[in-house]
Amino acid sequence: MKKRIVGFTISAVAVVVVAVASFVSFKVYNANASGDKGVAAKVNGEVIYINDLKQSYADHPQIKDRVPFEEFYAKTLDVFVNSKLVYQAAQKAKIEESPEYQRQLVTAKEDLARKLYLEKEVENRVNEEAVQKLYNDYTSKFESQKEVKAKHILVDSEGTAKEVIGKLKKGEDFVKLAQEYSKDQVDLGYFTKDMMVPEFSNAAFNMKKGEYSKTPVKTEFGYHVILVEDVRASKPLELKEIEPQLKNMVTQQVVAQIFEDLRDNAKVERYSLEGEVIPEKK
Predict the structure, then answer these.
(1) How is domain 146-233 classified at the architecture level of CATH?
(2) Which residue of 137, 168, 170, 178 has the lowest C-beta tally within 10 Å?
(3) 55-80: per-residue pLDDT in tens?
(4) Where are the domains of the chain?
(5) Each residue of 38-52: pLDDT tens digit?
C-alpha cells in the first residue's frame, strides 16, 4: 500500500459557514458603491445590503469556486445578521471606548496593513514567468525512475490470499475477485519503488507486465495479491498538473525574499532582557 495520509473532506456548506463567520465581523463594505440598493436584512433599523454578501463572496474565491452565490446567500445571511446584532450590543456596552479595544485596534490595523502589503507584492511578483522558470528547473533536474502500474487484492489472512491466487490460476477475473475479497482500493496507479512499503515494492518490481503474484505478499497491512499492469520509465509531470504547487513554492520564495530585502535595507537593533545589545547574525 502507498505510504500516505488520507485527509478528510468538509462539506461545502460547512466551509461557507465557518469561513464567513471568521471574517464577517471584521470586514466593512461600501454597499452603495456599485449602485445595488437591494436590502438583505434590517437589524434594529440598520441595513445589510445584498451587496455586502456579494462583496464577501467575491473576496473569497476558495468559497466562490465551490458554492454558487444563491447557496452562499442562504447559508450566510444569518451569520451577517448575528454579526450585526453582536456589534450593536458592543456599541451599546461602549466596548469601543475601552482600553482593551484601543489596544487591539492598533494591532488589527498593523495586521491588516502587513497582510495587504504582502498580498500586493506577491501578486506583482508571482507571475507566469516565475512559475515557468521553476518548472524548467524541475524538468532539467528530473531523474527518470522505473514505475509500475498495479492492482492489488488485500485480505487479512494468508489462507484467503492463497484462495484468491487459486481462483486466478483457474482463469477468474482479477477485478471481480477484488470486488469480492479486497478490503482496500484495487487500482494503485503508477508508483515508484520508494512510494510503497518495502515488502510490497520488492514483490511488484520483480514482476513483469501482466503477471500476478503467485504467493501472498505479507506487509503490515495484511496479505496482498498483486497484478502488474504496466512497467515504464517515469517522466516529468506536465506543467498544468503541478502548476498550483509551483505557484505556492514561488509564493514562499517571494515572501522570503521580501523579508530579506526589508532586513537588508533597515537598521535593526536587538536587545537582551538585561538591556544588552544582541550582535547581528552574519
Answers:
(1) Roll (3.10)
(2) 170
(3) 999 999 889 989 999 999 999 999 99
(4) 13-93, 146-233
(5) 999 999 999 999 999
